[in-house]
C-alpha cells in the first residue's frame, strides 16, 4: 500500500484518516530473511529507483470469495485506479471485471448462490458512495440511485435471501438500514436510525440491528434496535470512560461479540454472560484486539491484534476449542482476512516492510497455501529497501513515544543523512508496519524517516489514546518537536536538515509545527491538512451522524470554544511561518475542504516564504489514482531535495 496507508485498514475511521500485472506463481516462494538494521558505519551500496519504478507495485484490498469458492474477488489499482478483479484460488492470472477509468471501485460482496457481485464507487473521491450490482454478463446497476446521499453495503442475510444497505437519503445525519431482496432487489426499511448512531450489524434472524454510539472518540456504547417494536436498548451501560463496539454477531446463537476496553488498558473480546446485563471475556491480548469475525456457520472465528505497530492474525477452531497455527503463511503482517462460504478456505492480505501486500489463500484442511497475486514491482530489488525498526524516546514530560524508524543503507556517521518526521492521520490513527511505497521511495533517496506515533495514537492503550484530548496543537505537537531532537541524536542523521511531513491530521500537525514552533523544522509538507478547525468541525460530513459530536468532544466545540480553536488553528497564526512549505489538496475532499489549503497558501505567501501548492482536481481525501500519487511523491522529493540537499550537502564524502 502507498504512503497514506499509514493508518490501519482494520481500524474504525476517524475524522481525518485518508481513504484510500503479471501472473502470480502457483505457490509462494520461500521468503528471504529480513536483514538486521545496518550498523551506522556499515553502508551498503544501494540502487536508486525512480518514482515510476516504485509505482510499478500494485495495491490490492478487500478479498471476497465467490459463491463456489473457486475464485477470489478483490480490488486492485493495476490499471492506475481501483477496479474489481478475480483470480483462481489455485493461482493464475487475475481478470479485470470492471474497467473504470475515472472512479475508484471497491468490491464489497459476492452473492452466495450465483456469480453476481456488489461494489461501491463514488465520483472523484467525493465519498458520496453508491452500491452497484454487477451480473455475470458485465452489466452494472446502481441499487442506490440517490440524487444526493451516501450508501454502504452492510452484509448478506444468514439465509441468503437478502442483503442490507445503509443510506442517509431520509435524513442526511442518519444512516438507515434497508433490506434488499437478493433476487428482485426490492427493498424495505429494516431500521430507522433516528439517533444517527453508527450501524454495525444485523442479527441472523433479522429481529434486531446492532448500533454503535460514539459519546467521545474513546467512550461509546452498543445499542440494540428491536425491529418489531422499533425501540432501542443500551446493551453496555457503564461508568467511566470505556469503548464498546461490535466485533461480530454469532451466526447461530445471535450473541453479540463486542470489543471493549472497559476496566482495562487494551481492547478485548467479550460476549453476554449468563448473568443478565453482564459480559464475559472471550479473548484477551497484551495489545488491542482490533477486529474479530465468524465464518458463515460459526465453525471458526478470527481476530486481528495490533502488536506494537504491526498486525497479527489469530484463528480459532470453535468445534475443537483450539487456536489454529498459521505456520503455512510466510512471515509477514496480516491485516485482512476472510473465510470462504463453505468454511474450507481462508484468504489473507499479507505484507512485509520490504514487500508489497499480496493475497494468499489457505486450504484449512490440508494447510496448502497459495499466493494468488504478484504485486511487487519487478524493477525493485527488496534488498535495496529497508525494514522498519521500532524505537522509543522520552518526550518533554517523560512520556514514552513509540515510532517506526527507517534508515537508508547509505547513511553513516561519515555520510550523515537528512531526516523526516512523518506524522500519521487521525486524530487517533497509527503509523504501522508493512509496505509503505512512499516511505521506501524517500529512504531509497537518502532520507531517514521517523514515523511517529505521538500521544493520542491508536494501539498503545486507552490512556495513551486519550492523552491528546483537548490538547491538539500542544502536547502531541511537542512530541513531534522532541522527535527532531531524537533524530539529531542518531550518529547517522544530520540534525540541521530535518523536515516534518504528514497527511490529513498529520498535515495539520505540519502546519501547526511551522506556525507554533517556527524554528523546530527546516521545511514542511502538508497533504490534505486542516488549517482552520472552526471551519473543519462545522463542515464534517452529515452522514457521520452522532460521531460529529464525539469529534468535537475531543478537539473542541466551535460554538462554545471558538477562542481555543482559533488558538490552535495554524491559519490564524500563518504570519509566524518562515520555513518553506509544500501543500497538496484534493479538490473533491469532503473532510478537509479546498478552502483550508487555499487560505493557508495565500496567508503564508504574504510572509515571502517559498510555498508550492498542488491541487488535484480529481481526488478527495486521499489518493485513488496512481498518476496523482506518483505526481505527489515526485514533487515531494523534489521539494525536499531543493531545501534539504543543497549541492554542498549532497556531495559524497571520501
Automatic annotation (TrEMBL):
Signal peptide: 1-22
Primary role: This enzyme catalyzes the hydrolysis of the N-terminal peptide bond of an N-acetylated peptide to generate an N-acetylated amino acid and a peptide with a free N-terminus. It preferentially cleaves off Ac-Ala, Ac-Met and Ac-Ser. Also, involved in the degradation of oxidized and glycated proteins.
PANTHER family documented for this protein: DIPEPTIDYL PEPTIDASE FAMILY MEMBER 6, SERINE PEPTIDASE S9 FAMILY MEMBER
Domain Peptidase S9 prolyl oligopeptidase catalytic: 439-645
This protein's name: Acyl-peptide hydrolase
Organism: Corallococcus caeni
A Pfam family this chain is assigned to: Peptidase_S9
Entry keywords, A to Z: Acetylation, Hydrolase, Signal
Amino acid at each position: 500500500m502507498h504512503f497514506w496507508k499509514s493508518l490501519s485498514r482494520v481500524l474504525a475511521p476517524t475524522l481525518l484518516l485518508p481513504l484510500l500485472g503479471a501472473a502470480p506463481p502457483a505457490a509462494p516462494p520461500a521468503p528471504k530473511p529480513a536483514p538486521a538494521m545496518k550498523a551506522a558505519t556499515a553502508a551498503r551500496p544501494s540502487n536508486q529507483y525512480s518514482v515510476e519504478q516504485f509505482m510499478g507495485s500494485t495495491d490490492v484490498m478487500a478479498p471476497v470469495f465467490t459463491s463456489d469458492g473457486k475464485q477470489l474477488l478483490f480490488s486492485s489499482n493495476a490499471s492506475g485506479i481501483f477496479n474489481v478483479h478475480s483470480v483462481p484460488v489455485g493461482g493464475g492470472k487475475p481478470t479485470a471485471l470492471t474497467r473504470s477509468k475515472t472512479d475508484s471501485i471497491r468490491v464489497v460482496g459476492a452473492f452466495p448462490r450465483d456469480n453476481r457481485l456488489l461494489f461501491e464507487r463514488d465520483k472523484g473521491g467525493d465519498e458520496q458512495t453508491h452500491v452497484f450490482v454487477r451480473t455475470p454478463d458485465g452489466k452494472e446497476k446502481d441499487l442506490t440511485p440517490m440524487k444526493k446521499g451516501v450508501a454502504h453495503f452492510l452484509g448478506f442475510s444468514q439465509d441468503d435471501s437478502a442483503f442490507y444497505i445503509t443510506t442517509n437519503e431520509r435524513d442526511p445525519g442518519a444512516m438507515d438500514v434497508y433490506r434488499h431482496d437478493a433476487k428482485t432487489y426490492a427493498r424495505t426499511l429494516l431500521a430507522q436510525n433516528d439517533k444517527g448512531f453508527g450501524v454495525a450489524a444485523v442479527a441472523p434472524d433479522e429481529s434486531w440491528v446492532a448500533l454503535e454510539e460514539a459519546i467521545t472518540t474513546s467512550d461509546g456504547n452498543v445499542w440494540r434496535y428491536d425491529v418489531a417494536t422499533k425501540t432501542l436498548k443500551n446493551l453496555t451501560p457503564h461508568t467511566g470512560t470505556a469503548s464498546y463496539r461490535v466485533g461480530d454477531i454469532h451466526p447461530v446463537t445471535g450473541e453479540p461479540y463486542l470489543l471493549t476496553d472497559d476496566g482495562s488498558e487494551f481492547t478485548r473480546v467479550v460476549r453476554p454472560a449468563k448473568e443478565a446485563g453482564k459480559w464475559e471475556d472471550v479473548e484477551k491480548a497484551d495489545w488491542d484486539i482490533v477486529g474479530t469475525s465468524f465464518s458463515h456457520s460459526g465453525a471458526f472465528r478470527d481476530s486481528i491484534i495490533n502488536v506494537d505497530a504491526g498486525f497479527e492474525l489469530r484463528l480459532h477452531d470453535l468445534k475443537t476449542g483450539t487456536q489454529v497455527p498459521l505456520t503455512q503463511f510466510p512471515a509477514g503482517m496480516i491485516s485482512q482476512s476472510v473465510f470462504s462460504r463453505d468454511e474450507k478456505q481462508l484468504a489473507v492480505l499479507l505484507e512485509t516492510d520490504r514487500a508489497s501486500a499480496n493475497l494468499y489463500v489457505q486450504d484449512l484442511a490440508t494447510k496448502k497455501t497459495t499466493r494468488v497475486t504478484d504485486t511487487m514491482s519487478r524493477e525493485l530489488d527488496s534488498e535495496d529497501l529497508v525494514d522498519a525498526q521500532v524505537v522509543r524516546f522520552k518526550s518533554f514530560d517523560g512520556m514514552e513515544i513509540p515510532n517506526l524508524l527507517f534508515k537508508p543503507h547509505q547513511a553513516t556517521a561519515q555520510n550523515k543523512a537528512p531526516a523526516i518526521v512523518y506524522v500519521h492521520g487521525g486524530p487517533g490513527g497509527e503509523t504501522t508496519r508493512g509496505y509503505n511505497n512512499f516511505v521506501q521511495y524517500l529512504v531509497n533517496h537518502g532520507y531517514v524517516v521517523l514515523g511517529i506515533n505521538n500521544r493520542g495514537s491508536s494501539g498503545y492503550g486507552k490512556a495513551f489514546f486519550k492523552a491528546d484530548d483537548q490538547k491538539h496543537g500542544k502536547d502531541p505537537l511537542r512530541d513531534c518537536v522532541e522527535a527532531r531532537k531524537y533524530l539529531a541524536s542518531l550518529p547517522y542523521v544530520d540534525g540541521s536538515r530535518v523536515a516534518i511531513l504528514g497527511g490529513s491530521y498529520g498535515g495539520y500537525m505540519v502546519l501547526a509545527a511551522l506556525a507554533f514552533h517556527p524554528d523546530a523544522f527546516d521545511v514542511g509538507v502538508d497533504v490534505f491538512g486542516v488549517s482552520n478547525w472552526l471551519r473543519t468541525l462545522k463542515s464534517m460530513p452529515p452522514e457521520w451522524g452522532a460521531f460529529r459530536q464525539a469529534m468535537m468532544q475531543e478537539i473542541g466545540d466551535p460554538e462554545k470554544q471558538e477562542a481555543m480553536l482559533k488558538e490552535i488553528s495554524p491559519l490564524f497564526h500563518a504570519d509566524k511561518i518562515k520555513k518553506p512549505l509544500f501543500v497538496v489538496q484534493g479538490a473533491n475532499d469532503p473532510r478537509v475542504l479546498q478552502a483550508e489549503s487555499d487560505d493557508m497558501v495565500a496567508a503564508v505567501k504574504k510572509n515571502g516564504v517559498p510555498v508550492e501548492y498542488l491541487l488535484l482536481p480529481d481526488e478527495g481525501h486521499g489518493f485513488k489514482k496512481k498518476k496523482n500519487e506518483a505526481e505527489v511523491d515526485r514533487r515531494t522529493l523534489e521539494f525536499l531535495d531543493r531545501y534539504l540537499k543543497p549541492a554542498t550537502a549532497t556531495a559524497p564524502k571520501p
